Each structure stands twice: as C-alpha cells, then as structure tokens.
User: Which sequence fits this backbone?
C-alpha cells in the first residue's frame, strides 16, 4: 500500500472512496468505468487465523492504492493469463470492483470463480468486469480459500473453532462486505445477484441454504453447477488420505503443522493416485478432493444443512430468482486438457456405468442420440451430463418446486472445420468469456476456438444483456422454466440444442451422490 496524494501522477485518477477499513482509490479501467482491485474483505487466513472463520480486515491509514489484483489462494494450478500462488502470499481474501463512474443504486453482480474448489482466482482473464459494468452493473469478483485451506475437514474442528466450509464462509464475509460498503461505489445493497460457474455455481446456490446469507442475496446465476456436495464421511476419508500423504497425524494440530504448500502437494499426490487406479471406482473418473460439506444434520442447522437437491418447498431458495445454464458438451474440455480418465472400449464403459450405478437404459438413450459415436464420446456425454447438466437441471427443478422463479438456458456454441468436424465444442467454461464480454482476450483462444468473429460478438452482447437484465429486474428476457420437459429453455449459440435425456435420467434417482 502507498499513500495517494493529490496532484502529480494521481491527478487523473478517480477520487478515493471510504470503506469500513479505510480509504481506497482505484483507476479508470475504461472510459467511464472505474475499477478497484485487491480490496481486503477479510484478514489474511494464516497464522492464528488459519483454518478459522474469516476475520475482519485490519484498518489502514491514508489511502490504499487498489490498482492491482491481490494474491491468489494457495494452489498448484497455473492457468493461462492468470497469476500463480507463491508461498508467503497471505493477503488472499480480497475482492475487486468495476462500476460506472458517478453511478448510484445500481444492481450488483458478485462473481464466484470455478476451479473444482481447488484452483482459480478472480484475476483470470475471462473475469474482467468492465463490459458488465458498462451494461449498468456494479461488478464484484473475489478470491476465497481453496483446497484443504478452504474445504478440508479437520477432525473435531467444529468444537475447536475450525469450521467446515471455510471457503464458503469467506464468500459470506465478502457478501457482508458488499452489503456494508457497496453503496459507496454506486451499488444497491438490496439488489445483489451472486453468479458463479462450475464449483462457483454450486457455491452460489449452496450459500442460500444457511441463515448467514439471509437478506444478502436477491438473485443467483448458476452456470454449470456441479454436484452434489460432500458428506461428512467422505470429507473425513479424504482428510485421512491427505494427512497420510503429508506425513502428519489426521488431527487439528497435525494438520496445522503442515504448511499450505505441503497440504497442496499432498492433495495433488492423492488425486494422482486415484487418477491412475481404476479400482477406486468413481474417484478414478472424478478425482476432486474438495467441495462444500453438508454439515448440518437437519435443515437450518449449519452453514450448509444439505445438498441443494434436498431442498423442499418453503426453503430459503423460494424467495430468490434463479437463472441456470449449462453447456451441451461439458466434459469434452476436461478430456482435451487431460484431466479425466479415458474410456475407449465397451468393457471400460461397462465398468464406468457400474461404478456410477447408471442403468443400461440410460446408455441406450445416449446411443440413440449419438448413432455411430465412438465409446469415448458416449462416455464424455454421460459423465458431463451426470456431473453438470443433469445436476443443473435438478437444481432448477428443486427451485421450481420450492416456488422460486426459475430460468433455464443452454450454451451450444461450436466452431467446426469445413468438413463439419468440431474445432471447439460447447464445452465446460466456454460460456463465461461471452457472458463477461471478455472473449477477445488472446489467453482465451483455446477455450473458444480461436479469435472471435462477428457472430461471437453478437452472442456476447446477448449474454451480457441477459445477465444485466436478470440482475436488474429478475427477468433475463425469456419465459420462466416450469419444471416440465417442455419448459422454456433459452439456447445460446445455436438454433436448437438438446439437453440431457430427462426421462432416462429419472431412473437415476440417487446416483448423483458423491462416492
């Protein structure tokens, strides 16, 4: 931090803004748009704060210069165009804002990034809020604790002050910060939409189930929600495996004695073992170690009393507008980047179906839709729909049953070569750059299949407008979804696109649970 003084190099900068902890000063991200980057919303979660619920940030004197992103949370991933974590980076609980200059009482959109609860940050190139701010929103993005630091289970931790779901608690702290401070940046604290993709989408929906966020969120946008949440038993099992790999006892003190980099490395090794061993069942195909833990034995107890799919009519979700989207070819991305198991033979497909308790009638429904498709494509369609599309649909269905207004959409944009071969599919994450209007960033060309064209620009304008209108009025521009197979669905990037075969998936009544 440096103190900003009037005149000189700072004369063309926007004026300082007062938040609870002190004065902050940002910069012009574009003509008429002011950004503030790296504002602490909670204290560094290390030292005496490690594994604790987030604490209030320390106040500062002078004016805090907020022109660069804060450090990312501990992780091993290195994503294109995004910063990496370095041991010693501690001030990781920060947020960023973009707002039209001189605005007041605008709707607010708070973005939760994805990354399997283990990697990612608000500094990724597709998360720049400039275009959405230009559409009339105050945009907030944030970092939160990931991996074991954010979601690892500590045996007996609740009683000792080391709660479950620390990453979610960080998000709650950020929402409280928004409620208390956003008016100073031109936002309306009573019109907050929480949006997220993948793990960020499930986090957004999960936040609504506890008392901590009551009154802080008006609407939710959930793209490619992934689920379900973890059971306490699964979280305990993963802690034992990670602690053993790190060479420490699976106790609070033992885990406190391992550094963040040691627990990150141990987590990577455990996931690597699962990825190489088909004998571990579902974990072989989906070696994700962390996620929200359903920590309340009865609804209303705990931050996350149950998986969102267990919500019934009259739950907190009922008073919140919900916009759900999924891509039509989710898992092809994970195959392309080598993070999913390969299933290429009929025998391997049979084992996969047995591991996930998927009936042959479901496989037959996919084969009917994909005549002549190789086994790998059938497998990717099944796993992608199980992890993302069908779960997203069921979240939408649960919201309808709870009496909440719900909107459903699918992202189906593809790029094909002259012979019709897909150059890029409508895969996981491909929708995010278009919704943010960040699709021209060169770092995203792999994700969207090369430089964008005029049709892509038009698609992005449509998605940006839908998000902005939903955050403003609760209506993205099409009819609400009624929970039926014929219910209204908005298709992005194609004239028509099929969702998962719902009738066949209905036979999988309880097959979406974690192992």
Assistant:
């Amino acid at each position: 931090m440096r103190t900003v003084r009037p005149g000189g190099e700072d004369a063309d900068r926007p004026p300082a803004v007062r938040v609870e902890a002190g004065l902050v000063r940002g910069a012009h991200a574009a003509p008429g748009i002011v950004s503030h980057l790296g504002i602490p919303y909670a204290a560094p979660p290390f030292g005496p704060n490690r594994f604790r619920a987030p604490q209030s940030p320390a106040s500062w004197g002078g004016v805090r210069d907020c022109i660069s992103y804060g450090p990312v949370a501990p992780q091993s991933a290195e994503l294109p165009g995004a910063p990496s974590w370095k041991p010693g980076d501690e001030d990781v609980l920060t947020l960023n804002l973009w707002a039209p200059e001189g605005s007041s009482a605008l709707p607010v959109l708070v973005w939760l990034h994805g990354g399997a609860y283990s990697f990612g940050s608000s500094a990724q190139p597709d998360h720049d809020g400039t275009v959405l701010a230009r559409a009339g929103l105050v945009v907030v993005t944030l970092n939160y604790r990931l991996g074991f630091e954010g979601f690892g289970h500590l045996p007996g931790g609740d009683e000792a002050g080391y709660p479950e779901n620390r990453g979610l608690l960080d998000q709650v702290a950020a929402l409280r910060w928004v409620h208390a401070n956003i008016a100073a940046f031109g936002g309306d604290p009573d019109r907050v939409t929480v949006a997220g993709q993948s793990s960020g989408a499930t986090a957004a929906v999960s936040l609504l189930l506890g008392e901590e966020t009551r009154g802080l969120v008006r609407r939710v946008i959930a793209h490619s929600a992934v689920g379900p949440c973890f059971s306490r038993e699964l979280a305990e099992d993963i802690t034992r495996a990670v602690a053993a790999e790190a060479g420490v006892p699976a106790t609070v003190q033992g885990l406190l004695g391992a550094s963040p980099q040691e627990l990150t490395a141990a987590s990577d090794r455990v996931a690597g073992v699962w990825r190489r061993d088909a004998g571990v069942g579902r974990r072989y195909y989906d070696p994700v170690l962390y996620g929200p833990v359903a920590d309340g034995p009865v609804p209303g107890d705990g931050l996350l009393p149950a998986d969102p799919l267990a919500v019934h009519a009259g739950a907190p979700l009922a008073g919140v507008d919900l916009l759900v989207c999924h891509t039509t070819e989710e898992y092809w991305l994970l195959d392309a980047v080598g993070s999913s198991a390969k299933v290429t033979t009929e025998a391997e497909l049979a084992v996969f179906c047995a591991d996930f308790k998927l009936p042959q009638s479901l496989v037959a429904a996919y084969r009917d839709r994909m005549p002549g498709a190789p086994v790998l494509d059938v497998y990717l369609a099944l796993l992608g729909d199980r992890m993302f599309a069908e779960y997203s649909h069921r979240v939408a269905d649960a919201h309808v049953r709870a009496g909440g207004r719900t909107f459903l959409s699918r992202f189906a944009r593809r790029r094909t070569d002259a012979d019709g071969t897909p150059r890029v599919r409508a895969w996981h994450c491909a929708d995010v750059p278009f919704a943010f209007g960040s699709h021209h960033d060169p770092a995203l060309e792999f994700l969207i299949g090369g430089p964008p064209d005029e049709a892509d620009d038009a698609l992005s304008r449509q998605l940006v407008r839908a998000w902005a209108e939903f955050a403003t009025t609760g209506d993205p521009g099409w009819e609400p979804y009624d929970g039926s197979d014929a219910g209204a669905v908005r298709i992005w990037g194609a004239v028509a696109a099929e969702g998962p075969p719902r009738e066949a998936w209905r036979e999988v009544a309880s097959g979406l649970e974690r192992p």
